[in-house]
Specification:
Protein name: Transcriptional regulator, TetR family
CATH class of the largest domain: Mainly Alpha
Organism: Candidatus Phaeomarinibacter ectocarpi
Number of strands: 0
Pfam family, one: TetR_N
Keywords: DNA-binding, Transcription, Transcription regulation
Strand content: under 5%
Radius of gyration: 22 Å
Distance between the termini: 79 Å
Shape: globular
Largest sheet: none
Order of helices and strands: HHHHHHHHHH
InterPro entries: Homeodomain-like_sf, HTH-type_TetR-like_transc_reg, HTH_TetR, Tet_transcr_reg_TetR-rel_C_sf
Oligomer: single chain
CATH topology of the largest domain: Tetracycline Repressor, domain 2
Amino acid sequence: MVRDDSKSENAASAKSGGTARSKKREETSARIVHAARQSFAKRGFHGTSTRDIASVAGTNQGLITYHFGTKDVLWRAAADNLFEEIGERLFDRLTQPQSADERENARESIREFVRFSAEYPEFFWLMVDEGKNADERLDWLISTHLRPRFEALSDYMLNALGYAEEDLPHVYYTLAGAASLIFAVAPECRQLTGIDPLKKETVERHADFVARLIIT
């Protein structure tokens, strides 16, 4: 019996083509999400159109509809993406300590959060913009991302670091502002102080300062 190699070749070619198309779809989706993060953070939800996002992403508006359907779904995907990164760089580190010294583990987690804030100032912009209005998007942010992380961080601060329970909200918001504001208003900082907050040595100095401020 003679084997029909053409069928095997066609099957392999189809599989390869499908993999390439799948990879391209994933890359396009990721590019749109990244553009959405920046656009929503700078202009807010209502000030941003899917046309704006398509322009930043270098794609067409139809692909946004294809991948995400609506602007609201895309906004949630952008928020999910940001919180996934912050989870890996801050909260996961707290649950996977690098040394036996809890306070030093906490300081290094804070340093990493500061580095994240310098790299992605859109996180602070987005949170300030959405935190101003008690609406459906804020409800979703709190229930999906903020409350679980606030409770985890509060539990850690209370039990591992000995903070008083009544101080936990103040610690949370002090950390959020201290870690992020200098990078969120980088142009102001440059003109006012003469330093570039996004230079690596400045980021590291600020990271050390915030870590010492929160964890004495």
